[in-house]
What does this fold into?
Amino acid sequence: MKIIYKICLTCVAIVGLTIAGCKKEDFVELNTDPSLIDRITPEQQFMNTMLSIQGDRFEAYYDNFRGIMPWMQMVTPLAGNSVTFISESGSLRNVRYGVFFPGVGGNLTDVEQLIKKMPAEEQAKRVFQTEIARIVKAYYAFYVSDITGSIPYTEAFMVRYGGTETPKYNTQPELFDILDTQLKNAVSSLSSTPSIPQTSYGSSDLFYQGDVSKWIRVANSTRLRMAMRLMKRDPSKMKTKVLEILSAPGGLIDNANDSWIFRANATYADGGDWSAAGLRAPRPIVDFMYTNSDPRIRFFYQQNLFTQVNFDLAKAQGKIPASSTFDSRRYYGVATSPDASAAADFSKFLNNITIKVKNATGQDVDLVMDTLSFIQPRLFAAGEQGGKGVNSFPLITYPDVCFMRAELASRGVTTENAESWYNKGVEASIRLYDDLANKAQIVDRSNALSYQAVSATEIAAYMARPAVKFDPSKALDQIVSQAYLNFFKQPNEAWAIFKRTGMPNTSTVVPLEKLVASGTEQFIPRRAALGIPSVTNLNYQNIMDAYKAMQADPDFGQGPSDITGRVWWDKK
It folds into this structure.
């Protein structure tokens, strides 16, 4: 796993830090020789965890760019989706499982155990540190279980502390209760007045620099996200949880500054498997965003190269007919349905036209143009094309919370105002991506800086569009559609909201395409494939027992590897 030792923090300014008091080689040695755990402090191990939580490039490449994002029609490969893109081998590796076991989960367990080894008076100063580590651990366990189902948790990560090498698996319903209680207890503890001053993580907390009030909001917001997963499985329990969470101490994430986002400098994700440079913009989202003048379109996708200047050069050089008329639209997406993509007359998009242009020194060079747009690569890897900007990895943001509250109100689960939370969510999402694009220093396809700040006028105009302006008769559709757009940088949540609500689809406010390959409708996978362990695996029996228990639910599918099957919360 890629571990970077310089990161960016959002304090008064974004600054680069190195891990203080612990050399880089100590971290490497620790990861290869766990017996050296006593050399590290809780602060250092907490920082180590924060650095690794988003640090696996394979999750970006396999799980997001090749799996979830094409399935959810957020991107396509260069030539559109192939007929096998749903079932393509390797399209979803469930990398998050390998990040959690033994890495993130083990490191956060280390934090707690390191504190337990301290004298009693020192332990009393570090209660808040323990609870914050438990919040992160609960979130990531939920993230792993979300597409995996049962996982080992209560007996996991304790081998080096005298625990078992063969931890039993917790079922997903068990885990949801365990994690909810863990988060609830953390909020209770962090909201109390300590009898003695608490030791802060300080700069080792790469998210909030030890601000306890923000961690409380993260815990409550994580509980809310988990509770909403119960919508189909146990709506009564969901409602009870939601109402309890809304009245919990400390509240939810309620402004942009409280958003839970990991930020890192450009070298943290700088090309290779991190790169989104070869991914096309999808037609459904592009058409909706362009038609409605969504300001986020320029942050999500790049304009094509058909500027007026290039168009005139193409004409002058005989590359296009002299009768051609300039098209001022600079955003076009590729069809997401494999059959539609294969049948498309790409000639109408003037693909692969090569013209001569002058470079910076006045020399003639070739420029290959097409009309189809690409994804904005620096939004996903700020180091792309030599960039020096800041990478941002959202976990739970203020607009996420707004849309959750809007949906709950729309469904009558709460008595809050759905329209108010919807409007807050749309504006907050636009401002979030404005900030992410600015920090990432996005560029156009000529590699010129192309960030343009969003104006209040643009936001107001977008929110006045008939498809966007809140309409009580289609409120839930609008809320889910806007939440889906907001999850562009959180593809797992776009996938989850689709599984939970069945939206967006071909008839929603943001209309997706019907996915057809070789004349057969394709259906979006619902979970990760689970590998069959070797009989030499120490935990073989517990793994197989967990699979057997999950398979007792007919919704689980035909077997562990059936990606069309469902985890417990995703009830038919």
Residues 283-378 form one domain. The chain is about 40% helix and 5% strand. The radius of gyration is 24 Å.
